[in-house]
Design brief:
By secondary structure, the protein is α+β, with helices and mostly antiparallel strands. It contains two helices and four strands, in the order αββββα. The N and C termini lie far apart (about 25 Å).
């Protein structure tokens, strides 16, 4: 169990690093993530936010401003929507 949690935390850290490098870094701003993350903009109540898949049913909702990356929520589809 501990190894599973450690592995998931590492995956989340890796995704945060990817998001920062590919979406917020001044030189590479707005570069797309790898297709496996299924990154896409949200609509409706979540307009202005994006989500990406850490794993098939583990999502991360985030928002990017001019200077910041905000990690807003994380969970399964059923927990988030």
């Amino acid at each position: 169990m501990k190894d599973d949690i450690t592995s998931e935390v590492e995956e989340l850290k890796n995704l945060y690093s990817l998001l920062y490098r590919h979406r917020c870094h001044p030189v590479r701003a707005n570069q797309e993530l790898e297709p496996k993350y299924k990154d896409h903009p949200l609509t409706g109540d979540w307009n202005g936010y994006r989500d990406c898949h850490i794993e098939p049913d583990w999502l991360l909702i985030y928002k990017i401003s001019e200077t910041n990356l905000f990690l807003v929520r994380s969970g399964s589809h059923s927990n988030l929507f």
